[in-house]
Write a structure and sequence with these properties.
By secondary structure, the chain is of the alpha/beta class. It has helices spanning 57-62, 86-99, 114-126, 144-152, 164-181, 199-211, 226-235, 251-263, 287-300, 309-322, 339-342, 346-352, and strands at 53-55, 70-74, 104-109, 129-134, 155-158, 185-187, 217-222, 240-244, 272-274, 331-335. The protein binds pyridoxal-5'-phosphate (PLP).
Length: 355
């Protein structure tokens, strides 16, 4: 559709579509007292903020950190349909869609896409139709995110075994078809990430500044890159540690492009991104992820997902072992959600049940 015009071409991808999109309007939110020196786009609230920041003393000690060194930012508790990081981004992209009169949200993803599930949930909350163009074929069993997509009322088109560009083209075709029949439809980008959506994680960074002023490092998973880019925009590149989940071929380029678009200038500062937790590829259940899931569950009662938060915590464990995250540092782990994906992974279920 016309109002979502890409500005920056995305990095090549392994796992889906990525196009940064223009911020067409910037509006000063005079009701938001924390925003005094900058303008911020409008958003529609889809959750209750701030999310909690919880200490994890037993987990910290199990890792060899001091008992008050490790904190978990609970962005898995963002309310809608099992929660997760995508809600913060959708607050901005949905506001833009609604402002342009959209009646349908169209997005893309893998079969077990957390982003697709939360786009469906945001649509349900706002009274918008949702069309998901998902890679693959109808599954033999409806598990995890796919079951929730259906429950929430999203329509799914299975695109078959297509590459990312074809998936994107199919979604754009659906937008054109819908618009030829009625009111505008909005294409929400792969993973929910464009420059506008990054303000969702700028918001999260601002919450963290208030919740833990002496924050040394925050660890986050990287998929489409918007979560890390937003955190860097708020907290600075030094304090943000990204752990690639393998959804895109060049996560650093994606994060950098988003930051350049956000700041309207080439973003050249070094970024801390680990690439060593992808293993054999995006969908694989790696040994470090198994260790992370077990350690976190047994020492905090919190469940991670096998793709994103599992890899991010595995990256945190590796950083502690290497000494780049150390006792005395205030370390935050961003729990970005994904629990439905746990129930969509036969590998994770079998491993957890001891099989
Ligand atoms: C649970 C979860 N955590 C983290 C991410 C990564 O977020 P981003 O796409 O903003 O890099 C995703 C992306 O799909 C996700 O589903």
């Amino acid at each position: 559709m016309a109002f979502l015009k890409p500005l920056v071409s995305a990095a090549p991808r392994r796992g889906g579509i990525g196009k940064s999109q223009a911020i067409h309007e910037r509006v000063v939110l005079i009701s938001d007292q924390s925003v005094t020196h900058m303008s911020k786009p409008q958003k529609i609230e889809l959750a209750t903020w701030p999310t909690p920041l919880e200490p994890a003393p037993r987990l910290a000690k199990a890792l060899g950190l001091g008992s008050d060194d490790l904190w978990i930012k609970r962005d898995d508790l963002t309310g809608l349909a099992g929660g997760g990081n995508k809600i913060r981004k959708l607050e901005y992209t949905c506001a833009e869609a609604v402002a342009h009169g959209a009646r349908t949200l169209v997005t893309v993803g893998a079969a077990q896409s957390n982003h697709a599930r939360l786009t469906a949930a945001a649509g349900a909350r706002l009274g918008l139709d949702v069309l998901l163009v998902l890679a693959g074929n109808p599954p033999a069993e409806y598990t995890g995110n796919i079951a929730l997509d259906g429950l929430i009322g999203a329509k799914i088109i299975w695109a078959g075994d297509v590459d990312d560009h074809t998936l994107e083209a199919l979604a754009q075709e659906q937008v054109r078809r819908l618009e030829s029949q009625g009111p505008p439809a909005a294409l929400i980008p792969f993973g929910g990430s464009n420059a506008l959506a990054c303000y969702g994680y700028w918001d999260c960074g601002e919450e963290l500044k208030a919740q833990i002023p002496d924050l040394a490092q925050v660890f986050t998973a990287i998929g489409s890159g918007g979560t890390m880019a937003g955190l860097v925009h708020s907290l600075g590149a030094d304090r943000v540690r990204g752990v690639d989940a393998g959804a895109v071929t060049d996560p650093e380029v994606r994060v950098r492009n988003l930051l350049s678009e956000l700041t309207q200038t080439a973003f050249c500062a070094p970024l801390n991104i680990r690439l060593d937790q992808v293993g054999a590829g995006y969908g694989y259940f790696t040994e470090p992820v198994k260790e992370a899931l077990k350690l976190v569950a047994m020492h905090s009662g919190i469940v991670l997902d096998p793709i994103y938060t599992g890899r991010a915590f595995a990256g945190l464990i590796a950083a502690v072992r290497e000494g780049s995250a150390k006792p005395g540092d205030k370390i935050v782990f961003l729990h970005s959600g994904g629990l439905p994906g746990f129930f969509g992974s036969q590998d994770a279920l079998r491993f957890s049940a001891g099989g």
